[in-house]
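Q: I have 403 residues here and want to know how they pack in 3D. Can you give me a structure?
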Amino acid sequence: MIVLVFAGLVLLAHFYLWHRMVRSTTGPGRLRKVLSWGVVGLAALVVATFVGSRMEFGHWLAWPGYVWLALMFYLLVFLVVLEVPRAVAAFFVRRVERRAAPEPEPVPAMAGGAPAIPEPAPEAPPMSRRLFLGRATATVAGVGALGTVGYGMSSALGDPVIERVKVALPKLDARLSGLRFAVVSDIHLGPLTGRGHTERIVRMINGLEADVVAIVGDLVDGSVAQLGALAQPLKSLESRYGAYFVTGNHEYFAPSGPLEWIEELDQLGVRSLRNQRVEIKHQGAVLDLAGVNDLNGESAGDGPDFDKALGGRDTSRSTVLLAHQPVQVEQAARHGVDLQLSGHTHGGQIAPFNLVVGLQQPVVSGLATVDGVQVYVTRGAGFWGPPVRVGAPPEITMLELRA
């Protein structure tokens, strides 16, 4: 059912693009036919890209399919925004055409009183002003979409931004003040990323000289067999008290589930907190660091268990929770968590999707307080789907705790 709805939306979007980018810019003929079939092929490419992402041949479709998906989206955005000025311009064009239409001339009489048959006037090119208006609209939308996607690709494929954040925790032992977390999420190793993507992230994290590294889910988009080589640089992560990982929703999309990645990360020196907690001992004081599984694990019997992760602890200590989705703060609040570190949202990744994400998650990016719990949501260091980020550059966070 979901596939049919998705295919229907893709067809509807491409029909609108055909109407505005082909039918409104060309006359009947060979060019219109060629462009029309091109739009049909692009619609098929989008569907094939999503279907093929689960199969071995998917990587061949990933680059053209996802780049076109981004272009399609921004063409739709620009064309929809231009509908109002286009309608106003079309109104004035019609008025000009009516005023420019020549008045009918009186028919002269022939000899004997019969009306003369006037010579037919040369026919003006039909809808020439409207054709110009259609082409102007398509040009503005095309240039806008290409420029936006080009900028978004340079952002997504470039170095993540280092965000430096200080968070004051009321219960924090003064001896823990200054404890530093390197927070990264949504790396999304997949068909559009190479080993260099992981190496760059590891190099940047190591340059922060953090006390703890927290990988907050959505590390991969595939199996260990497909992507294991891309994850190898993670064994070079450096921190004083170790690197920790919690599952995201995409770990449960992998063909064999998250367990093979849990084992792989263990081999790379990254410890997974599966509804567990550990003690971070720093300068004679102790901080509880807990992690819960992602909500998507519930359907596989591997969902979050806050009682297991947080029950029975010393509540006088401050607790930092790793949970992939910000919405999990609702349960964290009931367990007395002081700070939750999350990802998942990508900061919206492609504006204006940040407005849509805000309908599902309590925080889209940055630091906020929800139900008395401070939540920091990182935008993530990678991307999902199109290799494009607009208004939400990739991020690695250096988060420092303060008493």
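Q: Anything worth noting?
A: The chain has a mean pLDDT of 91. The chain has ten helices and twelve strands.
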